Amino acid sequence: STGHSRPCLRPAPRGPGPGPGPGFPNPRFQCPESLLDCAAKAVAEKWAFERVEERFERIPEPVQRRIVYWSFPRNEREICMYSSFQCRGAGEDGPAAGAGAPVGSGAVPGGVSGAVGNAVAGGSGEGLPFRRGIRLLESGCVENVLQVGFHLSGTVTEPASGSEPETTHKVAISFDRCKITSVTCGCGNRDIFYCAHVVALSLYRIRKPDQVKLRLPISETLFQMNRDQLQKFVQYLITAHHTEVLPTAQKLADEILSSNSEINQVHGAPDPTAGASIDDDNCWHLDEEQVREQVKQFLSQGGYYGSGKQLNSMFAKVREMLRMRDSNGARMLTLITEQFMADPRLSLWRQQGTGMTDKCRQLWDELGALWVCIVLNPHCKSEEKSGWLRQLKKWSDMDVCPLEDGNYGSELPNITNALPQSNLNQDSLARPRRTVFTRAMEACDLHWQDSHLQRIISSDFYMSPSYQREGESLLFNQQGLPLWLDHVPTACARVDALRSHGYPREALRLAVAIINTLRLQQQRQLDIYKHQKKELLQRGVTTTTNLEGWVGHPLDPIGCLFETLTETCRLEDDNAMDTGGNNDSTLHLVPDGGESYLALALEVALMGMGQQRVMPEGLYAQDKVCRNEEQIVARLQEMELDEVLVQTLRKQAVLLLEAGGPFSGLGEVIHRESVPMHTFAKYLFTALLPHDADLAYKIGLRAMRLPVLESTAPSGDVGHPHHGISIVPSRYPRWFTLGHLESQQCELASTMLTAAKGDMLRLRTVLEAIQKNIHSSSLIFKLAQDAFKIATPAENPPDITLLNVALELGLQVMRMTLSTLNWRRREMVRWLVTCATEVGLRALVSILQSWYTLFTPTEATSIVAATVMSHNTILRLSLDYPQREELASCARTLALQCAMKDPQNCALSALTLCEKDHIAFETAYQIVIDAASTGMTYSQLFTIARYMEHRGYPLRAFKLASLAMTHLNLAYNQDTHPAINDVLWACALSHSLGKNELAAIIPLVVKSVHCATVLSDILRRCTMTAPGLAGIPGRRNSGKLMSTDKAPLRQLLDATISAYINTTHSRLTHISPRHYGEFIEFLSKARETFLLAQDGHIQFAQFIDNLKQIYKGKKKLMMLVRERFG
Questions:
Q1: Which of 281, 299, 394, 817 is disulfide-compatible with 822, CB 3.0–4.6 A?
Q2: Lowest mean per-residue pLDDT among 116-125, 819-828, 1009-1018
């Protein structure tokens, strides 16, 4: 800014000559300020200097000096705000001294001392411009500081570092009415915030005002010069900077000498050091272009590289500006919003019908909430509000503007109306389109003129007269304390606006009035419920609930009240620490002389979390409910519960249990679609347990329900949690977060189980609640595992009560998953056996005896009985002989039952389990024989046959192998079939048993096996040794080799030759040249077999001749045949 135009000729000011005037008073002597300084401070802060000049014909120079002196910002916090993202210090709230505090309010002249300045930037990193600026200042890098009127200049030297040489930057700052209006620095900084050099120069002026040369605006100095002095001044100026200013100087000279020039039409001339004009906006310098650029850049990164964090920091900066009552807050938010609306991803998401990411949605939510804050500024002008409304409407009307609830239209009530519009059609098309800006637009209709509201926020002692306290009142409760009967989120938005705009005390008063109103409503709803209780309990369900929940609400009403109240306590704690003693400030107590703000904060959080409310539509809105719940619980867990807070907790818990209908989600009867209370109840349970265990369990057990699954869940397993979505009937909105809600239900149950360890009665009630309310086998299994872990600590003996609960839960899982597919089933079965083993012998006997309700026959034999009978289990239980026998008897009974039910899969396990008992073993063997002809495959029979041979029953093995052979069919080309080894083994077994067995099995082989190579292999093995080498007692063995000319080998030889002939013809039908070599080798093997017969060579020669005749077309192949076989 070049400043306003000033007259070139006027009388010189009268009064004392130039002088520095008094500097900052020395705080040690606490000198009262002069009347001149008091007046100059007030004028410097509120009036443009041009207005002062217009108002008074002559202003004495000392007065001018003091106004100019006091016009520079006095508060380091403001410099910090414009030079760093994170600059909020502890306890920083409300307008800083000099930035909104009334004049004469006791603000320390000169603003914050150096120590406070350092503290303000405390938590921020050393690399931030504000911290670097302080270091430059303290290192003596600021020099040549000169203030000419409303213009400050100086040089700041950046010390050499590493490879960077020392550099000196020229810095210039213009200011007006205690705000910096423009900055320039030679470092060429391109950022939203001031560079460290501007910070260093500003802090120099704030901390060392006495050391700054102060001059009046340059025009004042020029007034005092005569013509010769002026000419000399101009010529010296041009000489000093001739290369830069000579062309400009000549151009100006030409225009001044030309009578018609524009410059001669204007009275006076501009002065850049004379402050801003009356018409200029009085606001801090903010580089709008840089704000746009940075937001655009962060958005283009799509949430990566910490861009979401950066954007949240920008939102925090807007809030900080609002708190300092700085008009740039709204200006900066407008710039941010413009870039958000220009984000190219919006139209892309809309075209593709995909939702934006959660992080992105949260940023839009914060944007909407900030606009509500801005338009609810209690001191904004109506034209400002109209301008914002126009802007918001323009954004809201754009197609790409995101909707408030993420996906769907909403039936939520208007912000200014506590009840939903009754004439709204339920059809989604009839719902109004609500965007992220709708609430801010609705908030434009709210005002602060209500006299009752004004009295609430302006006094701690506003109460109704005692004689008016009887009967009903809309303005005060029975104790005479004021109420504010507004739609709760709207009322809380007012509180947030007051806090955000630097009115913490006013926000606090309104928050207390809202809480008193909520208490009254809670009491009234409890009375109403008591009248309807009988009817509601008979129906077992209520249709009454809140359409709009306070938790997960876009305006976060509960979070706002909680923060307002706890922030006050934090500030008081900080103040108490600063003064080093006890602080008896009234801030800890509500004006009625009773409760602490901390207790109120706890109470309102409990009311909000316990509110019965319908689950909102859409994934985002439902996810937000869960997230907001967790945030509030996290804040509650940070509270250290003293006696007062425990009383509050207990009182509110009892109220929530007693209340029903719309107020409490923990009442006896709730709406089927109500948001579950598991997360909240887990907090209440944990917090109440040390103080009132009965109440804690009442809350926990009441909250275990999940009614949305009750009327539709089948009696079996509802599968993995995320499959639960499909259970909810289509007439209700889908519960996208059902998986999360079920896991929270499981967490609550686990917490109660852990706490009830050792108390059989409590464990039983928790167990019943789990069995009644949890419908997912995976979650019950998790609970069983948790209980088992807690019941069996490494060093101490196990807790048998909790072990029994773990076992019972495990048994329930077994029953639930018995007939459904579950990929963890094997793990579950193994775990159950482990658990039963820990419980003891009776538990194992019980699961063995009732196996058919818990396990499949395969599981019962291969996993359960096998594990129970293992050496490890016997050792673990330290069983004596009768106990071992009892267990073994149960296992054998189970094995035989399973073998009967599923012989294919259980026969072998049954035989193994019955080995030590002859009768049981014989029974199992008979079951196998009976099942062999119908239900069993050759591979199962071969496996059992080999087992029998291994156990020393070769004849039984032979019988089973023969039965297996009848089920087998090996085609001519299956020379790699997995059963080949079994066939070779069966033949070897028969051969070893003797000629009769071999004669019995060869017809079966001939019938089942058509593969020439397998047959020739069997034939070769049978001719190599004499049969009957197994040495069965009572049998004679001749010891002679068997002849291929006689039965039974003759039959096998003929079958083998026949197989070779058939296979040869089959192979030649589709043979390719690359297989010729392999085919010739195959014929060589065939010849070996042919030659085992007496006339084998003649047969083979005829066979070759036939081939030559039939396949004479395959000349190359036949030539190879001739070469090898003639």
A1: 817
A2: 116-125
Cα separation, 377 vs 323, whole angstroms: 11
Banded model confidence at residue 924, pLDDT cuts 50, 70, 90 = very high
Strand, helix or coil for residue 168? strand
Residue where the block lists tokens 């100095």: 221
* Pairing status of strand 213-215 against strand 142-148: parallel
E-strand ranges in 778-925 read none
DSSP string, 72-84: S---HHHHHHTT-
pLDDT for res 1034: 53
Strands 213-215, 5-6: pairing is unpaired
Distance (Å, rounded) from C-alpha 739 to C-alpha 762?
27
- Give pTM, 2 decimals: 0.74
Which tokens go with 827?
């793990």
Encoded amino acid at 610, one letter: G
**Residue 292, amino acid:** R
The tens digit of pLDDT for each residue in 1067-1113 reads: 888 888 888 888 888 888 888 888 888 888 888 888 888 888 888 87
Give dist(CA 905, CA 268) in Å, integer: 109
d(CA 424, CA 414) in angstroms, rounded, equals 12
Around Cβ 1069, how many Cβ atoms within 10 Å?
7
| Phi, psi angles (nearest 5°) of residue 821 | -80, 130
**Based on the number of CB atoms within 10 Å of its own CB, is 976 exposed (0-12), middle (13-18) or buried (19 or more)?**
exposed
Distance CA 391, CA 606 (A): 38
Question: Three-state DSSP class for 827?
Answer: helix
- Name the residue with higher pLDDT: 1003 or 184: 1003
pLDDT at 28 (0 to 100): 52
State phi, psi for 213 to the nearest 5 degrees. -65, 125
Helix (H) or strand (E) holding 1096: helix 1096-1110
Distances (CA, A) of 884 to 841, 873, 888, 911: 9, 10, 6, 19
CA–CA dist 264, 250 (Å, integer): 16
CA distance 551 to 618: 16
Tokens of 200: 């260093």
Residue 553 CB coordination number (10 Å): 24
pLDDT, tens only, 511-561: 999 999 999 888 888 888 887 777 777 766 666 667 788 998 888 999 999
Could you tell me the strand order of the sheet in which 151-158 lies?
179-185, 167-176, 151-158, 142-148, 213-215
Question: Average pLDDT in the 711-717 region?
Answer: 47
Helix %, strand %, coil % for the chain, to 5? 60, 5, 35
Cα gap 732→734, rounded to integer Å: 6
Mind giving me the DSSP string for 901-963? H-HHHHHHHHHHHTTT-HHHHHHHHHHHHHHHTTT--HHHHHHHHHHHHHTT-HHHHHHHHHH
Task: Select from 308, 293, 401 the least CA-distant residue to 357.
Answer: 308
The DSSP line for 715-754 is: SS---SGGGGGGGS-TTSPP-TTHHHHHHHHHHHHHHHHH
Which band of pLDDT confidence, cut at 50, 70 and 90, is reported for residue 1125? confident
- Please give the backbone phi and psi of residue 994, each rounded to the nearest 5 degrees, phi first: 140, 175
Q: Is 380 helix (H, G, I), strand (E, B) or coil?
A: coil
d(CA 527, CA 532): 9
Q: What is the pLDDT of residue 579?
A: 39
Give the single-character DSSP code of 862. I
Tell me how far the alpha carbon of residue 492 is from its chain's centroid. 26
Q: Give the integer Cα–Cα distance in Å for 971 and 1008.
A: 8
